[in-house]
From TrEMBL:
SMART domains: RING. The lineage of its organism: Eukaryota, Metazoa, Ecdysozoa, Arthropoda, Hexapoda. Gene3D superfamilies: Zinc/RING finger domain, C3HC4 (zinc finger). One of its GO terms (biological process) is replication fork processing. Residues 5-46 form the RING-type domain. It comes from Anopheles christyi. GO terms for cellular component: nucleus; site of DNA damage. Pfam families: zf-RING_2. Keywords: Metal-binding, Zinc, Zinc-finger. GO terms for molecular function: ubiquitin protein ligase activity; zinc ion binding. This is RING-type domain-containing protein.
Amino acid sequence: MELSCSVCSELYVPSVHVVTTPCGHLFHNDCILPWLERSRTCPECRAECTATALIKVHFNVTANLERNTTLLVEKLNKLTTKLDEQVEALRKIEKRTDKCVERQSMMVDTLQLLLDEIRTQSTCIRDLENKMDDCTVGLGDFLTNMFDTSTV
Ligand SMILES: [Zn+2]
Ligand SMILES: [Zn+2]
């Protein structure tokens, strides 16, 4: 429940001076006094009223504060839950990113292995080519020799 002064429409705060008229209506002391100087009636119900008939009102501030604290704690709890959810979501994204990075590094490793193999194989091919060249030269020599001996 929130109480407000019908003269100025502002809510009553615990520290402010609030008074009640004999008819039971609440006003700021600073709002009702100038009013009563002009008209000796309650601004709310027009019942007769004088400044001397006003009674100071004391609110039970503790109860109000407790309620507000409870509301604040509830709000804080909701916010904390929301924050937890967001942190969880962020963690999931992080995990996914980690997996991607892992997979990428695995792929780089595989690629490196393949490159090594290709390099090894090209070395083998070069060796084979060299050997074949040697063989070709050898065969040429052999054929030349054979031709020479047949003509002798
Ligand atoms: Zn007021
Ligand atoms: Zn009144």
